[in-house]
Here is the input.
Amino acid sequence: MAMTPDEHPVVTGNENVAPLARYFLWVDTRKGVQKFIVGLLAIGAFLFAMDFVWHRHVKVPGEELYGFHAIVGFVSFTVIVLGAKMLRAFIRRDEDFYGSDGVDSEEYPDAGTQRLSHEQFDGDSIATLRAQILGDEKVADQTIGANDHKGGQAS
Amino acid sequence: MSTLLAPPFIYLFAALLCPLLAPRWRALLLLGTPFVALAMLLTYSMGNHAVVSVVGFDLTFVRVDKLSLIFGIIFSIAAFLSGLYAWHVRDTVQQVATLAYAGSAIGGVLAGDLITLFLWWEGTALASVFLIWARRTPAAYSTGMRYLIVQVLSGVLLLAGLLLHYQDTGSIAFGSLGLVSLGTWLIFLSFGIKCAFPFLHNWLQDAYPAATVTGTVVLSAFTTKMAVYALARGYAGTEILIYIGAAMTLFPIFFAEIENDLRRVLAYSLNNQLGFMVVGIGIGTEMSLNGTAAHAFCHILYKSLLFMSVGAVLYRTGTSKASELGGLYKTMPVTMICCLVGAASISAFPLFSGFVSKSLILDASASNGYYVVWMALLIASAGVMSHSGIKIPYFTFFAHDSGKRPAEAPIHMRVAMIITAALCVIIGVFPGLLYSLLPYELVDYKPYTVDHVLVQFQLLIFALLAFVFLMKTGVHPPEVRATNVDTDVVYRKFIPSIFPMISRAVISANKGARTAALSLLGSGLGVVERISRPGAPLARGWSVASMMFVVIVLMCVLLLANLW
Here is the structure.
C-alpha cells in the first residue's frame, strides 16, 4: 500500500520474494493500491447505505442517526491522528534524551537475535522443528542461531 | 491432593529443575510444564484446596471458581505459546524466569487469601525483571531497576493495605473488598499500579520494549492481567473504575500513534485494552464482568500474537523501530499474515476474537446508561484500529520499502504464531467456546446480529478510510526516530535534576547555621571574658555588707513575686 509521498518502482516480479508474498505484490503497484482504495470506498458506501435500509435497534440516544458509527469512526480517527500530531510537538525529544538510561538510544544487542537475510536462509519446515524436539542433531542446528545467549553468557 | 502439586508449585519446581538440565531438555521443560500444570488445575473441583496453616493463618493456595479458572486456563495457554515461541532460547536465566513468572501469575489468580496473593504478587515482580535484565545492556539494567522499584512498591502497598484490612476486619480473605477503609484503598492502589492506571502506567511502556525478543511476549501476558483479575475479584462494581478505565482507553492511543518503537506502541495499546477490562469491572454486572474475563482471555492471545510478530521482525532485523522498517511482507509473509490476524483481532473485526469480547463490555456500558463512557469506548475502538490495527502491520510490512529483506521467522516462531492466530480466529468464529468458560452464565447473548456486525464494520471501515485520506493528503505524521516523554520524565529527569539544587541548598543552609552558631558562641565567650578578667566586676573583691545587700534585694524580689 504505497500511499506515502515517495512512490516506488513497480515490482517486476524478478525480485527474490517468498512464494507466499507473491499474492501481495499488488500493494506495491499504483494500480493495485488504487483498486484497494476503490474497493474500500465501495464497501464504505455500501455500509453507509445499509443504515437507510436496515432498521438498527439502538440503546444510546443519538445512535439512530444515519451513519452514526461511520461518522464516529472517521471523525475520531482523524481527531486522534491530528491530536497525536499536536502532542508530538510537546513530548518529542531526541532518541538519546535519557542517555544510556533508556533503550531508545541503543541498538538491540546481537545476542538473542539471528539476523539473516532472505538469501542466506535456506528455509526450515515443521520437520526441522520435529527434529529439534526429538533431538536429531543433524537437522536440529539449522535454526538455533549462533547468536543466541548460551547459558548466561554476557553480550 | 498434596499442596506441593498445586499448579504454581509445579512451575516453581520446574524452575528449580531447569538449570540442571541439558539445553534441549530445558526448552522441552518450558513446553511441558504448562500442560502438566493445566491438567492438574483441571482436576480440582470447585472450592478451596491446598490450604496450609501458618502461624494461625489459613493460606489458601488454590481457590477454584469460574473466575479464577478462566484466568488459570489462559495463563497456561500463554505460558505454553511463549515457551514454543522461545524454543530457540538457550539462556537459562530467561527460561528459569519464565517458569517462575508464569507460576507466580497462576499462583496469584488461584490465591484464596490476601497473604498468598501478596506472596505471588511479589513473585511476579522478582521473576519478571530478569526477562528485562536478560537483554544484558546498561539501559536494560537501568530499566529493569525502575521496573522492579515500581513493582515492589505495588507489593509493599498491598502488604500495608492487607495489614490494615486485617486490623479492621480480622480477616485475610480475598473476596469483594470495596473502597471502604484506608486498607482497602491501599490495596486498590497496589492493584492500580500493576494494572497501569493513568499516571501509574509508565512502568509498562518503559519496561516492555526493553525486554528480550521473547521476554516481552511473556511479560505481556501475565502481570497486568493478574491485576485485572485481582480488581475483578476485589472491586467489582466500584464506580470510580468505570472512569479510570475510560481514561485508560483514551490517553494511550495518542502516545501510541506517534511512538516509533513498535514494541512500545504495543505497550501503549496494551494499556488501552486494559482500560476496556477495567470499565467492565467498574460496571460490575454479570454481563460486564463476563466481558472483562472474555476480553482478558482474547487480549492475551492477540496481544501475544502482535508482540510475537514484531518480536520475529526484531529477531531477524535487529530493530523494532517503525522508521527503520517497511516492505518486509516480501520475505516475511507468514509473520505478516499472523500480524494481520492479530491486528484484526485487536481491532475487533467480526469473525476475530476481539469482536466477541469487546462487544460484551460496550453492550454492558450502553445497557447500564453509561452513555458518555460508551462513547469514549467507541472512540477508543477507532483508536485501537489506528495504532494496532493499521500502524503496526502497515509500517512494518508495507509502507515505504526499507530495503531490508530479512529471512522469514524460524519455524518454531511461525508455529507459535500460527497456533495463536488460529485461536484468535476460532474464538471469533465460535464464540460459544469462550462463552462457556465465563464466570457467569451468559443469558441469551448473541454477538453476531446484523446490528452488531453492521455498526462494527461501519466504524472500522470508515476509520480505515480516514487513514487512507490522511495518508493521501500527507497529514498523517511520519514515523521518526525520537523519544517521547511521558510521566516517566518526572522520575527520570525532573526529580534527578532538582537533586543537585536541593543538595546545594542543604549544604549552604548548613554552612550558614554553623557560622551563625560559632559567631554567637564567640561573642558570648567575649562577654564572659570581659566581665571576669582581672579588675572586671566578677574578679573584683566585694565586701560582706554589699553581698548581704544584694541577697536582701533578691529575697525582697522573691517575696514580691510570691504575692502574685
Q: What stands out?
A: The longest helix of chain B spans residues 488-532. The mean pLDDT of chain B is 94. The two ends of chain B are 85 Å apart (CA to CA).
